[in-house]
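Entry 14. Ran structure prediction on the chain below.
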Amino acid sequence: MKHFISILILLVSVVMFTSCNENKSDNNSTVIESPSNESEIGGISEESIFNLTTTWITEENETIQLKDLKGKTLVMVMIYTTCKAACPRLVADMRNIEAKIQESKLKDIHFILVSIDPETDTPKRLKEFAIENFMDDNHWTFLQGTESGVREFANVLAVKYKQISPMDFSHSNIISVFNAQGELIHQQEGLGVDNKETVQTILDLTK
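Output, structure tokens:
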């Protein structure tokens, strides 16, 4: 009997392990499970990016914290302005998402581009980049942070990046959508992918 119970426990363990390791999706979009509101402090849950205290400088040379963005749906991506390969396509993906949002809703949405190269991407350079790419309306914001702050934020978004030369980085291509409380709701991974689900998530959050 003891031998039978031991075998049964072993079989259950194998099934559980297999299930965990097969929990991968081939989809380019991921809907994040709704965050729990059980541990909220001042209206911000433990999952909110507004808990991060790092300071950032915008393309307008204003110093902010992420909590200053509270109250609007956030669509965020990490890029660097000297990138010649993936980043122009990420920028195009962001503008494509914007183009599918009704103009009346844009006042409740903030598109944020965070530089992974804070040494090069000064507020002046970010402002130039915004103008060059027709992303200088009020609902667009570019952020320069510290190296440690950028790395911390990248970890939150599961964005991986590595400097491979003085002016070049390898990096993940992920667009993230946050609700007005700073909780991650959805991620779109890849370049030029179908953004229907991403757009619908944004619209659902800004009803």
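The chain has five helices and twelve strands. Will compare against last week's run tomorrow.
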